[in-house]
Every structure is written in C-alpha cells, then in structure tokens.
Amino acid sequence: MPLSNRVPELAALDVLVAVGRLGSMGAAGREHGLSQQAVSARVRSAERQLGIRMFDRGAGGVQPTAEGALVLEWASAILDSAEELASGVAALRGEMDANLTVAASMTIAEYLVPGWTVAMRRKHPNVVTSVRLLNSTDVAAQVRAGEADLGFVEGPVVPNGLRSVEVARDELVVIVPPGHEWTRRAPIAAAELATTPLIQREPGSGTRTTLEHAVPGCVEPLLELTSCTAVKAAVVAGNAPAVLSSLAVEADLHDGRLAAVEVAGLRLPRRLLAVWDESRGLRGAARDFLEIARAGG
Q1: Residues near 168 by Cβ (< 8 Å), separated by ≥ 6?
Q2: What confidence score (pLDDT) does residue 98 get?
Q3: What are φ and ψ of residue 214, in 5° steps?
Q4: What percentage of the chain exceeds 90 in pLDDT?
Q5: What is the CA radius of gyration of the chain?
Q6: CA atoms within 13 A of residue 164's CA, in its CB half-sphere
Q7: What is the spatial distance between Cα 176 and Cα 183, in angstroms, rounded to a whole number?
Q8: How, if at all, do strands 61-64 and 55-58 pair?
Q9: Model pTM score
Q10: Which of 114, 147, 205, 218 is the most exposed place for a label (fewest CB within 10 A)?
Q11: How confident is the model at residue 217 (pLDDT cuts 50, 70, 90)?
C-alpha cells in the first residue's frame, strides 16, 4: 500500500524527534552532524509536508506545539520500529561484534540514559548499545524474559524476581500552566488532586504507579500519553494539571513555561533503579554500563 505523501522520510523524522527531545536546533544538529541551518531547513520542509507547525520558536529554544508533541510521539514509535529492523538485519548478517541491550523507562531514557550511553561509547567504542524506551512494567518484563541485559525503572516497588540497585533519585511534581487557578491558592488538598482529571502517563509507567500508590482513588485521567514531552505540551494546550518527574520539568519551571503546585502534606520522592535477572547476573558490558549509571555518567 503506497504511503501518504504527508509522511516524511525516516531521516526527517529522526531530526524532528531530536529537536523535540533536546529543545534546540543547534543541539540536534550536533547530534546528527548537521549545521543548525540544515536542521532548521529540514524542520521547515517536514512541517510543510505534514501541514502542521511542529515547534514554537523562542529565544530560549524550541518547544513542541500541542499537535507537534503528538506527531513526535508517533514518530518516535516509527523510529523504534526502524531501529528494531536495522538491529535484526545487522544481527542476521553477523555485523555486531558486541551488543548490549538496555531497556529504560521513559523518564530515565529521556533525561539520564543519553549521558550514560555517551560515556559507554567513550569507554567501550566497540560495544553497540541498543536502548529500548518502555514504561517501567514493560522494562521489567523484558529483563525477566532475557530480551534486555539491563533495565532502568521508576516506581515505589522493586519488580518481582529481579535484583536492583539505586542509581538516582527524583521527585514527582504537580504541574499546571502559568495562570492556572491552582497557582493562586496553593497548597491544594490531596483530595482535590485525587478528584481532578489529570493529564497522565499511560498505565504501567513508573510515574503513574507512584502517584496511584501515594494518592489512592484518583479519578479517570483527562488524557493518557506515553511521553513526558507530550504530557507537558498537553498541559499547556489544555490548561489542565499533570504529575511528572522533576527531571522532566526542571527547565520548563525555570523558564516559566510551567508552574509547580504544592499539595498539602504530600511529597512524591522516588528511587530510580537499575534491575537485572539474578540467575543470569551482570557480565561484561552490562556491568560496565551499570557502573557508569551509578557514577552519574
């Protein structure tokens, strides 16, 4: 079946996703070996092809529009599938001398894993590290099944049947757009948070599991999305609250794109854990990657 002419090529999607993840045309260019002007031209070309404005440009960088955040989420899934295809073909051809598969929850994958993989590449240039972005429940399942050598998860409990060690900590934050009514009367009650439809991560994510453990009886979400970037864009577009990792919102709070709201008597600290199968243990590249993560890159 012929593809719609509205679908950009994989290389263009890869650049779009990098711009959204890094918040900068220049940073995306450095990651892809392109000039900032070349990245900007590719983004404009993709926007024309899609018929959608993907980013808001400003002095502080670029932010996805509400529509752009959704496109980026879909594009990420396409790129993940393409990476699986490339890895499978390479494995069939025997091109991988050494391979490490890391499965990481979305927050950890977006904000911590990139630095760890760069450090790993410097230390072991011949090791090919493949990173799978999943929610915490799926990370644990892949590690148990032997489909990932090492996993990184968020959440209040250690997944059953796995060894674990803490690699970092963060805290969940209630966020709203600037000017939201909660900013004028904070702290709000935990009961009000529980009875307010939130923009949430999907079931199985460490962020959502932590919130549901700390605030039982939360009402059904207003919207469910599978990435921090999409949630943040939807908060601004929909004038609705959400709960996300402090790692994910630090820059947005600093720049005033989002506002944090205190909840009376409620704090949501989390341990970020590395997990692995005890029976298989950690050897070679997986052990080295864990050491890098524990050292903070």
Answers
A1: 108, 112, 272, 293, 296
A2: 52
A3: -85, -30
A4: 57
A5: 20
A6: 19
A7: 8
A8: antiparallel
A9: 0.64
A10: 147
A11: very high
Q: How far apart are CA 194 and CA 37, in angstroms?
A: 46
Residue 47, token pair as written in the block: 């926007």
Distance CA 23, CA 221 (A): 27
> In the structure encoding, which two tokens stand for residue 235, read together?
């908060």
Q: What is the 3-state secondary structure (H, E, C) of 247-262?
A: HHHHHHHHHCCCEEEC
Which ranges of 56-178 would DSSP assign to H, the alpha helix? Answer: 66-92, 106-111, 113-123, 136-144
Cis peptide before 187 (omega within 30 of 0): yes
Structure tokens at 22: 């890094």
In terms of CATH, what superfamily is 90-168+271-294?
Periplasmic binding protein-like II (3.40.190.10)
Domain boundaries, the chain: 10-78, 90-168+271-294, 170-269
| Start-to-end Cα distance in the chain | 45
Rounded CA separation 212/217 (Å): 7
State the pLDDT at residue 81.
83
Structure tokens at 20: 């959204």
Q: Does residue 98 or residue 50 have the better pLDDT?
A: 50
What count of Cα atoms within 13 Å lies in the side-chain half-sphere of residue 100? Answer: 24
Q: What's the average model confidence in pLDDT over 18-45?
A: 89
231-273 per-position pLDDT tens digit: 999 998 888 999 999 999 999 999 899 999 999 999 999 999 9
Q: Do domains 90-168+271-294 and 170-269 have the same CATH topology?
A: yes
Q: What's the pLDDT at 5?
A: 82
Per-residue pLDDT, 249: 93
Which residues make Cβ contacts (< 8 Å) with residue 220, sequence separation at least 6? 197
CATH class of the 10-78 domain in this structure? mainly alpha
Give the three-state DSSP class for 35.
coil
- Averaged pLDDT, 165-187: 94
